[in-house]
């Protein structure tokens, strides 16, 4: 059996994603139907107008949301979402394994949804960075190799200081150089 009626705009997802766009679409459509007053504060809409608006709005809700708002008869309730409602909805999306994390965020006592959201986004970026670091160098992997092991070996043995390439000022130029078994630089005998 096909859909009985076509949606005029997308149904609101249970996660609440796209709520701002959904609310604007709902208001525009209710206005064209002559029912926009039903979603305004202190409105004088009749119960019949509220029922029509509610049927229209419920038609544009995800099945999970329809169940959540099963007993709601006033369309104004679907339009007024407080900061507290948004915060609670976000806390409720934490998985059961993250209950401690949910309690920690509740303990931070956010008053604005935007503050909680920015905090969660920063935490997500930090977690992504930690995962990338771990994947590039897992625990127990070999340490990084020495960049210049010959130079390191000479310094450890106390054989002078490193002056860098090309600082011999002409000394030993043209001679073939060789390292002794103890790591010291020795001229090669021809």
List the helices and strands and how they pair.
Layout (H helix, E strand, L loop, with lengths): L18 H14 L14 H13 L3 H6 L6 H5 L3 H10 L6 H9 L5 H24 L12 H9 L19 E3 L5 E3 L3
Antiparallel strand pairs: 1-2
Please provide a brief summary of the model:
Residues 154-171, 179-190 have a biased composition (Basic and acidic residues). With 190 residues, the chain is mainly alpha-helical.
Largest sheet: 2 strands, antiparallel
The number of helical runs is 8
Spatial shape: rod-shaped
Q: Order the strands across the largest sheet as they lie in space.
A: 1-2
How many DSSP E strands? Answer: 2
Overall mean pLDDT:
78
**Rg over alpha carbons:** 35 Å
**What is the terminal separation in angstroms?**
97 Å
Strand residue content: under 5%
Computed structural class: mainly alpha
* N-to-C order of helices and strands: HHHHHHHHEE
Please estimate the helix content.
40-55%
Question: Poorly predicted ranges (pLDDT <50, ≥5 residues)?
Answer: none
What features would you highlight for this structure?
2 strands, 8 helices, 190 residues, mainly alpha
């Amino acid at each position: 059996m096909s859909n009985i009626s076509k949606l005029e705009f997308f149904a609101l997802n249970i996660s609440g994603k796209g709520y701002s766009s959904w609310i604007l679409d709902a208001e525009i459509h209710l206005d064209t139907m002559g029912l926009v007053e039903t979603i305004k504060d202190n409105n004088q809409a009749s119960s019949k107008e509220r029922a029509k608006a509610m049927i229209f709005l419920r038609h544009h809700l995800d099945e999970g949301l329809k169940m959540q708002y099963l007993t709601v008869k006033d369309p104004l309730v679907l339009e007024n979402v407080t900061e507290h409602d948004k915060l609670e909805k976000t806390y409720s999306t934490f998985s059961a394994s993250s209950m401690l994390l949910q309690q920690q965020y509740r303990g931070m006592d956010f008053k604005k949804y935007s503050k909680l959201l920015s905090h969660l986004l920063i935490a997500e970026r930090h977690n992504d960075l930690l995962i990338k670091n771990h994947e590039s160098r897992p625990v127990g992997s070999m340490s990084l190799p020495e960049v210049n092991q010959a130079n390191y070996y000479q310094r450890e043995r106390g054989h002078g200081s490193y002056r860098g390439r090309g600082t011999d000022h002409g000394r030993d130029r043209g001679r073939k150089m060789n390292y002794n078994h103890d790591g010291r630089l020795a001229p090669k005998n021809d």
